[in-house]
Amino acid sequence: MVGLWPKATTLSLLRELRSTSGATFGTGVKQALIELGLAITKYQRLLRIQDGGCNNRSQQMLDEIANTGHANWSPHDHTDWLLLEIDSDVMLRPEQVDVALATISPESGQNSVVQLLMGKGKTSCILPMVALELASENLFRIIVPRPLLLQSAQIMQTKLGGLLDREVIHVPFSRKTPTSEGMIRAYDQLHCEIQNRSGVILALPEHILSFRLSGIQRLCDAKYNEAALMIETQTRFDKDARDVLDECDITLGIRTQLIYPSGSQQTVDGHPLRWKTVQSVLDLVFSYVDDLTHRFPNSIEVVVRTGLPLVYFLREDVERYLVEQMLLKICRGQTPILPVRHLQPSLQNDIHDFISKSIVDAKVTARVYSMFQEKRHLVDVLLHLRGLFVHGILLSTLKKRWNVQYGLHQTRDPIAVPYQAKGVPSPTSEWGHPDVAIILTCLSFYYGGLNMAQFKRAFNQLAKSNEPSIEYGIWVAEGVPEAFMNYNGINAEDSHQLRELHEHVRYKVCLLDSYLNSFVFPQHAKQFSRKLSASSSDLVLYDPSGQKTAATTGFSGTNDTRHQLPMAIKQNDLHKLAHSNAEVLAYLLEDRNKRYVRMVDPYTRRRLSEKELLKKLFHPGTVQDPHSCIRILIDAGAQILEHDNLGLVKAWLDVDNQAKAGVFFSDNHRAMVYYRKGAMMPLVATPFAKNLEECVVYLDESHCRGTDMKLPPSARAALTLGPHLTKDALVQAAMRMRLLGKSQSVTFFSPPEVHRGILDVRAATPGSPLGTLNSLDVIRWLLKRSCDAIDQLEPLYFNQSLEYLQRIQAGIDHPNFLADKVSRESYLDVVRTEELRSLKQLYGPKYQQTGADIDSHTFAPALRPYVREIVHRRVDFQDCGIAIHSSTLEEVEQEREMEFELECVREVQLPVHFEALEVTELHRHIRQFAKSGTLRVGSNAFEPMFRALQKTALGLKHGTVTADGMPAKLLVSTEFMRTVEITQPNDNFLRPCHWLLWNPKDEIGMLVSPEEANALIPILRYSGGPACHLIVYAAPLTRHMLQFNSIDYYAIPCLPQDFKVPIWLKVELGIFAGRLYLEWDEHKIVMSYLGMKASEQDAAEFVPAQCTESFATRPLAFLHDWLAVRRTGLDFEHTPVSFITTRKPLSARHSFFAQPAKDEDANAEFHRSAPTDQNVEDISDDLDDDEDDLNEFIFQYDGNDDDHDEFRDAAEDFVVEDTTFFDGKAYEQAEDQDVVKK
Predict the structure, then answer these.
(1) How would residue 1058 be classed by pLDDT, with cut points 50, 70 and 90?
(2) 600 forms bridges with which residues in the sheet?
(3) Rounded to whole angstroms, how far apart are CA atoms 324 and 333?
(4) What does the CA dihedral 687, 692, 697, 700 come to, rounded to 10 degrees?
(5) Residues 799-817: pLDDT tens digits?
(6) Angle at the Cα of 732 from the Cα atoms of 617 and 99, rounded to 5 degrees
(7) Among 756, 753, 749, residue whose Cα is nearest residue 720
(8) What's the pTM?
(9) Where in the chain is the domain with CATH 3.40.50?
(10) Do residues 894 and 846 lie in contact, with contact meaning Cβ atoms separated by under 8 Å?
């Protein structure tokens, strides 16, 4: 047995000190092991002191000498902390212990957060200390912002995975995660196992909120078993979890929320004028830029660049002048926005008051509405303009910075999204208000232009238009070489010619608007009908019964937002650390940090380009130090827009020829080194990891928080300022210089718009000294900016807090909502809110208090103090013109709600794919109708078309579609309306109308699904004189497609030679199918269906017919919205049906009804159906001649369940010879039975 016993090493002995080891010690053994550990920590401390002295790190040496360790804690009580010191080679400092103890067990006994200065070891020391104490008894979760996830995981694994042997896991969850019983039980089991093993769960806020919302979403979807399991699991988490929030000022930020949209997705109200009005208004804004620059040289900054210039508003005087001039021009009818030039001046003044004043007299509103009573779409334009001007949406969005606060995401839908930092688009967030998203999308395309793929798509669309040369002439009207002036001279197959043309026109606003109106807004400017929401308040574990206290704690380096924390958590800073805020400001006010540099050319006074800025860094030329060189650029103000990180470092090395390499962060957030010769590798793998003296270092805006680099002790950094910078953001950026209070320094670089703001603040401050600006002026400006930012978010805070309290109260009022149906409906009525709102709801003038009084007595006793507090703050809130744009109490509620929407940046998780319903066999009543032409009364195999229209999501939304008074001669099969498994109507999955079963004797038609048509074909072929015909149909979307309007393109069996379709069928089928073109002889009958009649004064003008029955109370408005549903992704404004719905004048001489040329007639000629080979060839030729026709009625689902609205053209898969439709062979079942989604 000698030598076989395991060898006892120092590490094996120390491992027994772990709180999770389960070891039982004899007398004095544990004390001896603790003494061994203490001796090791002392030895490590001496080695660190020696290392600091040998490497001239005086500050490190002084810090180690000052910290003898274990002053305010006992290793006997916290043995895990002793092992943490040994394994991490650190000595815990007294303030770290104080913050850790306050996080573990707050003195208040309630949820709380504390502040500790940046660089004091919050993530590297305090978080592991807290985890070691709390994970032993609880389900312990550390919640961090997404950008810090990887860094936090690496640190926690390093600190806890060695001697301490603690497990660290990350369990993501999103709306795409399956919610089957097995999956949820596995998710719960993971948490149970990590709790039993005293491990740590590293979580993101959106993952926590997503699981909470998913259970409620299953409840909304009537999946009660899944909902019950998920909600019960969430209840256990709320009971057992103990959460710690890192960087809680971000995690608990009130700007962000998680949204689960649901229901039918519908185009925004007022389309397509909703976005075309925005485009016209923006065009008007940019037309005033030169005039504004001349009149207000000190109030506006214009950066000339390729395409439209970047505009920065510096003062309110220029904003007021711009708005006044725009309103004057619009109300005089001098723009295409409103055709009011013919109105009397008094009526124009009424319009001016309506779209410019927050409070409008009821008589003025009535007169304005009556002016456009017969053109309701212009009322929507007026309401929209009121929102843009009165609610401040236009100026609010114009003040945001492109590529810094908003822009496009390369892999998401082409709609502007919020940016997390310069050049870093949010992966899932979106703008909460539709008009904000529309304006910022337009600006993003105006500033960024079209890429080559987008330009090709726009050019191909141009070729399909009726008059491509006219539109093309607008594209190339200015600044394009003569060689590209003629549309017929452009070869779409010549990639070189297209690339050259693309460079000349990619920034043309007319081209950009055309692309936006064709491919972006019609398809993506949509909203869901309902939503579930969760905010930062839902991250705080709160028990109204009071049985659980201090379940959520956290810390951060700044506490500027302490007054806007969720109601259930408070800021409780340690008295010893009360100086933290003043400490950093004191650093910045020291003489070495007072340098201030304007980012302008000293001779021309224009803004420095980015290359000129780099030259300025090489020769700063400040008064205090005219010869020093700056090699660290901290871009907190996001002033580097034209270069990416690597490109800037390359340009910097060209300027600074003495630097050996450049350090920057790559797209995957990894610190990289770029050598002058072109080599590139991670920073940790280079000799510069511990010595950056010979490198240039660039920290972009997204890495100004949480980044830790070993910068030289005497380093000097350039710190850029920006118009939206606040004190906490600047302090976080400045403290990347860990020795800022000792030996390192910063120099402030100010762009023109910030410099003007600093001068204004200095001028408004009594007793401010004259002379050179310095850090004192910067801090004064920052404090004002921070106060303004907090004030701006107060309305958002009110709304989020009240919604959270209402959700909590709903759970208290309806504890049995999982089992009781009535309780469930009442509960969902509170937690599920309406998402889709009309323009009138958003912007219409209010003449009574819009917000109901909130009675605290309707809430549970535990919630009443919070309710009273939020109501009291709401009443005391003073409007200083920043957060809201109203001057009276009657409008305050409405405007605060609007501000909530304007500033809302929300994390959105879209619904996952839907399950396709199984195809049923052909109903016997439809089979009977096909053979004999008789219909079974009361059958459930079909229903009238107008009744089917009434049941759609749009029909339910309007609530005005009436099917009872309409003739039931056009039917829709039940199978036609069945596509996917849904709990409520969803118009995204309506089938296109391609197959009509027609009984010519009784003049009854029935729309059937492709599967039903497949089953009907052999019946009609071989039944021997069937009573019905199966006719191919496609809704005319262009003038050339009117050949389908006769509804005799092809039929089985063939139609008689004298067949003529009744005109009512054209009209009704056209309405349901969403056709855009019609013949002039149908115009009057269509108008009659829509409840309109010719005016007695002017036969060309149509007015509502009082006695005529129509299928809807507001048929024109309904049809306009229905076209948007049916024609997703297609701009239909310049079509005959759109002219009808917007009541624009039409005549027989209009170009819509012009006869095609003879050569076009020859190409468009078609033959009636007959089952012969010659007919097959004719049909094939027709389809080849008109690609649009083929694209309309032959689609193939691409199988991608994530994109519900995408189609793939199946023309290449369509082979006439192999298609049994034409040769009478038996049909084979298709392999892919997925429904076509529309």
Answers:
(1) confident
(2) 607
(3) 15
(4) 80
(5) 888 999 999 999 999 999 9
(6) 150
(7) 749
(8) 0.74
(9) 595-773
(10) yes
